[in-house]
Design goal:
With 124 residues, the protein is an alpha+beta fold. The protein has a domain of 78 residues: Arc Repressor Mutant, subunit A (Orthogonal Bundle). It contains five helices and three strands; from the N terminus they run H-E-H-H-E-E-H-H. It has a three-stranded antiparallel β-sheet. A hairpin with a 2-residue loop joins strand 2 and strand 3. Helix 1 crosses helix 2. 18% of the residues are buried.
Length: 124
């Protein structure tokens, strides 16, 4: 995942912006506000994917993208095997959903100001 938000209009809920393993990773971290290392998140993702597996590098890349976006916090620690990150929520799930909505609406207003205002008025 890059540092951008992609909205899939064919999906609903968090799946509109997060695919299977990223959604599992975020839920695991929201369930553990004290923080988790990438290995624990990777283990949880592979356990919950039921028959499908994801690479640890994919998990690490996703967690880092979320940290760079400010969705997650990260603390680098040193331990057996070297340096590693512990990730914890910088945003709750409701705050993340608000962040997504504000980001998408902000971009729509920037790129299609009149059309976005009309669409919001029609939906409200």
């Amino acid at each position: 995942m890059s540092n951008r938000i992609e909205f899939d209009t064919a999906e609903t809920g968090l799946r509109a912006v997060l695919k299977d393993y990223p959604e599992i990773a975020m839920k695991a971290i929201w369930e553990s506000p004290e923080g988790l290392g990438s290995k624990v998140v990777w283990d949880k993702a592979n356990e919950r994917l039921k028959g499908k597996t994801i690479s640890r590098a994919s998990i690490i890349n996703f967690l880092e993208a979320m940290r760079e976006m400010g969705v997650l916090k990260g603390v680098e620690i040193t331990g057996k095997g070297g340096h590693r990150w512990i990730y914890s929520p910088a945003m709750t799930e409701p705050q993340f959903k608000t962040f997504i909505a504000e980001t998408i609406l902000g971009n729509l207003k920037r790129d299609f100001p009149e059309e976005t205002r009309r669409a919001i008025a029609n939906v409200s």
